[in-house]
Amino acid sequence: VAVDVCKGRYKMVKLVANAGFGAVGARRDRSRANRVARLLTTTALVGVGLSLSGTAKAQSSVNPAGGGNVSATDGMVTGGGAGQGVQASGSSGSVTVNNVTITQVVPTPTSNALDVNGPDVIFTGTNSLTTTNSGGAAFNFTTNVNRGINLTGSDNSFTGSYGMRISAPSGFINVDSSRRTQTLTGNGTAVSGFDISSFINPELRFGTSIVNGFSTGVRMTQSANGGFVYFNSTGGSITATGIGINADNAVGSATIESQTAIVAPNGIRATVGTGATITTSGGGTINSNAVGTGTGIFSTSSGSGNVNVAVGAAIGGSTRGATGVNASTTGT
Predict the structure, then answer these.
(1) Residue 310 burial class via C-beta count within 10 angstroms: exposed 0-12, middle 13-18, buried 19 and up
(2) What residues contact residue 110 under an 8 Å CB cut-off, 6+ apart?
(3) % of the chain at pLDDT higher than 70
(4) Angstrom distance (rounded) from CA 98 to CA 85
(5) What angle do CA 188, 104, 174 make, to 5 degrees?
(6) What is the DSSP string of 84-133?
(7) What is the pTM of this model?
């Protein structure tokens, strides 16, 4: 008996020896039947292998229930059902997020609308990511190597307790929204809009983004001795209940170049170890959210290096805080 698996059909084939062939004819017939059976069995195994391979490949791309596509060039993508977030992972390549709408209400397997672990991420089209889970991020990214988040091809919206939470504890991170407007809106615990931490040299090119409703609009930190934190913007706005831009780098330096209008009790805060350079210009005004409350620019350095502040846009022009600029060095 042989199995014919062609075109997905199973057909029993009965091999009957003609009595007139004699013993030799019967042996030949049985031998040929065995060869056919082995061939068909091999074909079936190859078919199964191709089927499994196709299934794995299909999981590298997901179309979320709200529309659009999330795909990985060398990795896996899961989730995306109604009310679900999307999870992507890989050790190399990139993940592309194109014209996606995700509204996550299901808190498993994570509380984040889009959760990426590993590869570079490229946003294209117009994407809307929302999590209603308190403490979750609209976009959560983790990696142990040097990676980039490319936002230069699209304007997107991110809503959650964190807008974009990005972590690279063993590498550096470059988040690039040059000439683009990302809209980040806080809900739930409303911790931070852009929340970026890395082992060394995190960089954020803010573009003309709009950040609203978080305790901290932008938070950046790194932990490598001598490393730097870099922020640059060409417009946009930040409205926060605590700090507009917070650069925390106890063992390195910070450079902040802001043309972003900030409304917060504390506009720009840089606590560093080896000096800071803070420049505001253009539309980079700083106002408090209550008269007599907070400091426009605060910076202190605990080690070597100067703190340089150049104010090129009004501080307290519409709502004056308690202090305009407070800069100091406590080290050498």
Answers:
(1) exposed
(2) 85, 87, 136, 140
(3) 82
(4) 15
(5) 80
(6) --EEEE-SSSEEEEES-EEEE----S-S-SEEEESSEEEEES--EEEE-S
(7) 0.82
